[in-house]
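Researcher: We plan to redesign the surface later, but first we want a full-length starting point. Tokens attached.
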């Protein structure tokens, strides 16, 4: 199991889909079991994901990534290629929709009847 001493906040007996479903049913039907597992899960989150411990490291990493974003993007050939093709796809889609709308407007334009044309002239 996960967590300290093999505890992870849930039932860790499932090794198959059927066993997982049975564990889920047990947690749903036995409120005391659910409460015990829930409490253990919260305790583990607090101990393993301590904000005071991890937030400074996360902030430092974000600052470093933000500072080097330009050079990271320049060296990311695949990312640049994907952005380029995504933009081109959007351009072609907008061109297609524009042409389609023009064709639709020509098809649905009201036809002037023969009588109306003769009345104008």
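Model: Full-length starting sequence:
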């Amino acid at each position: 199991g996960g967590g300290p001493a093999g505890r992870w906040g849930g039932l860790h007996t499932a090794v198959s889909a059927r066993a997982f479903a049975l564990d889920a049913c047990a947690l749903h039907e036995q409120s005391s079991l659910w409460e015990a597992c829930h409490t253990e899960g919260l305790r583990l989150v607090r101990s393993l994901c301590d904000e005071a411990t991890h937030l400074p490291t996360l902030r430092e990493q974000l600052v470093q990534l933000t500072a080097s974003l330009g050079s990271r993007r320049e060296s990311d050939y695949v990312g640049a290629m994907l952005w380029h093709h995504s933009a081109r796809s959007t351009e072609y889609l907008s061109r297609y929709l524009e042409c389609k709308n023009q064709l639709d407007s020509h098809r649905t334009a009201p036809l002037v009847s023969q009588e109306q044309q003769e009345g104008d002239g």
